Amino acid sequence: MSETFGIQRARALREGRAELLGASPEHVPADALRDALCELYERELALLARGAGIGDRSGFVLVALGGLGRREVLPFSDLDLVLVHEQRPDRELARIAESLWYPLWDSGIELDHSVRTVDQCLTVAASDVCAGLSLLDARVVAGDADLGALVIDGARRQWRSQIASRYDDLVDAAAARRRRAGVIAHLTEPDLKNGAGGLRDRQLVSALTLAHLCDGRSARPEDLATAHARVLDARTELHRISGRAREVLHAQYGDEVGRALGVGDRFELARALGDASRTIAFTTDQALRVSCAALSTRGLTGLLRRSPARRPLADGVVEHAGEVALARGARVETDPWLPLRVASAAARAGLPIAPATLGVLAERCPQPEGRWPAAALSDLLVLLGSGDMLPPVFEALDRSGLWDRLLPEWSGIRDLPARERAHVLPVDRHLIQTVVVASRLTTSVRRADLLLLGALLHDIGKCRPGDHSENGAEMVRPVVVRLGLDDDDDETLVRIVRHHLLFARSGSRHDPRDPATPAMLMAVLEHDAVAMDVLAALTEADSIATGPTVWTEGRAAAHAALVAACRATPSGRPGDLEPPAVDATRPHGPPDVVVDLRTRGAGTRHDVTLVVPGGGRSLEVAAQVLAFHRLEVVDARIDLRPPGGMRATMTVSTGFGAPVDPRLLAKDLRRSIDSGLPSTMRSALGRAPAHRPPDVPASVIVSPRSDGDGLILEVRARDRPGLLATIVSSLLGAGARIDWVLVRTRGSAVEDAFALSGRGAVLGTAAVVEAALS
Fold first, then answer.
1. 572 pLDDT above the threshold of 70
2. Positive or negative torsion for Cα 382, 388, 391, 396
3. Which of 161, 325, 409, 708 lies 20 to 30 Å from 369, alpha-carbon distance?
4. Domain termination residue (choose one: 265, 295, 325)
5. Which helix (H) or strand (E) holds 596?
6. CA distance 75 to 68
7. pTM over 0.85
8. Does Repeat show up as a keyword for this record (predicted)?
9. Neighbours of 189 (CB within 10 A)
C-alpha cells in the first residue's frame, strides 16, 4: 500500500468523523450517530485492509472487539483491533500492521491493537477473564472470514467449556467494578459504563447468556433493551457534548445531555437513567443468581439429579432450589394479594424471589381493589420490618411492575432525584432506606406499624409542586383508608406525614428547656401521644437515611431532649391498657379444656376460644402447644383472674395449609397440662428458624396498673416462634402472677401487655424478661 493511499484514508477518517460529530442531535440522534460511525470505520478499515493485501484467502483477518465489535461505536471511544494471522514471518507482519495502524494514528483515533495467531488469541482469552469477555463481542471487519471464525467460534466454545472454573473470577471482577464505580441510580454523577446498572453489567448478562447459564431476560424482557439503549444514548451524547471519551456523567453536562435526548433537564435525565440502570442492575443480579444455581447442578448425571424439595413458606408460596416460588396449587388468577404474600415470605426466609415467579405474578395476578384485608396489611408490615432484606425484595416487586399495583402513588416518586443537597439518594430509594433504618427502631415505639408506614410514605408528596409535607398528607389519606387502618390510626398517620419535619426543624430553633416548646409541639400534633412517639423515631430514621452529615451527635442530643420534654407533657390518646373483656366462659362441672376454632373464609386466619384449667402455668403450656401446631397468635385477650383458669379469645394464623383439628389441639393441651410438654414438642420448638432477621433488641416498659395493685409490662419485640411462651415462662420464673394479657402482632412487631400482681410484680421483672428475649 502506498504512503499516499494511507494519507488519503487517514484524511477520510478524520473528515468523516468531524462531519458526523459536527451534526446536531436534532439531525443525527445518538443511535444514528453510532450507526454512521460504525459504517465509516468499517468502510475505511476494509479499504485499508484491501490496500495491505488482506483478502478472503490471504491468511490474515482483521477482527474488531469492544464497541465496534458490538456495533456500539461511541464518538471518542478507541478502536480495539486484532490482526490475526497464520504463522507469518515477522517482516511481513510488521509491513501489514504498519499499513493498518499508521493511517489510524494519523486520523487522530485512539487505537488499541495487537497482532496474534489463533492459538495466541485463545491462550490470552483463557488466562484473562477480561480478555475472554472482549473476544465474545468479536466481529470480522475485513480479511479471511474462515480464519476469523476460528478465533470467534473458538473463543465462545472455550468460554462455555471453562465458565465453571472462571465463574468466581468473573463475579469477583464484577463486584470490584461495582464497588469502585457505585450504583448509577444512587449517584448524582454516575459512571455510565462501569457502575451497577451500566453498560458493563449489560455485557456481563450477554456473556452469561452465551455460556447458557441464563436466558438474559428481565421480569419484563422488553424493558431491558430499552434500558440499555437509554444508558448507551446518554453516554453517546456525553462524548459528543464533552468532546472526550468520558464515562462519568458530571453535573455540568447533565442539562445538555438531557436536552439532546429529549428528556428535559439534568434532574429529568437522572430520573430516566435511574429507571433504566435499575432495570439493568436487577437483570444482572438475577442472571448471576440463576447462573450460580445452574453451575451448582452441573456434573450430576441424569440418574443422580433430583428435583429440590419444596418447603412451604406461606399460603401458595414455597421455597424451591434456594428461591421463593409459587406452590403448585397457588390461586394466581384469583388472588390479588399473592405478590405481597410472596414478598413477605421472601423477606422472612431471607431468600430471593424466583424470576419465573415474578413473571407469572406480573402477567396473571389481578389488580388489588378496595380495602385491604388484615392479612395483606400484616404481610406488608412484615416486608417493611425485614431490615436489609427489604431493598432486594422491593426491587424485585418494583422492577416487575407489582409494586405499582399495591401502591399506585409510588409512580410519582420513582427515581425522582432529590433536589436538597443533603440527600444522597433519590426520593424513592430514600424512603426505602428510611424504612430499613426504622425497622431497627420498632421496639422503641408503641406503634411499630405506624412507624414503618410513616417511614414509607413521609416524602410521597415530593412528586407535586409546593410543600411536600402538606401534599403528602393529602395523598396519604386515601392510602391509609385503603390499607384498612382504624379511624384513629388514619388520622394519626396523616398527622405523622404532615408533621414529619416538626422535630427536625424545632430542634435547632427552640429551647427544649422552655416549657413553651413542648407545649407548642404537642399543640401542633393535637396532643396525639402516639404521633409524638412515632415521630421521635421517624425523625431519627429519616435523618440517618438522608445522608452522613445530617444525624450528628449534637442533633441527636438536641432531639433526645426535645422528645423527653414532649413526653412529660399531658397528651391525648395515652393508650392506657385496660383488662380484656373475654367472651369465653367457664363450663359447668369439673374444669376441662375447651377449644373452639372457627375459620375465617378461605384465608389462613382463624378465631380460637380457649378455656383451660389452671393459671399462668396453663398459659405457658397453651402457648407452647399452639406454637407446636403452627398456630401463630396474631391477637389475643387472655384472662387469668379468679375464679381461676384461663379464658382466651384469639386470632391465630397458620401461614399455610389447614389448621389442626380442634379435638387434637384439646387432647394435646390436656396431656401437656397434666404431664408436661412431650419431648417431641420440646425438640420441635427448639429448632432454630431457617433465617433470622437482623436482631432488634426487645424493650420492656413498666407502668402501674389502672385496674388495681401491680404492674403492667409492655413487651415490644420482633416476632418469632414460641415468643409468647418464652415471655410467660420468664415471668413465672420471676415469681410474678399474671392476671391478664393483651397480645398484638403488627406484621413482625410484637406489642404484648402483661398485667402482673403478687410478690413477683416488681421492677426487676422487666430485666428478667429482657434477658430471656436477648
1. no
2. negative
3. 325
4. 295
5. strand 594-599
6. 11
7. yes
8. yes
9. 13
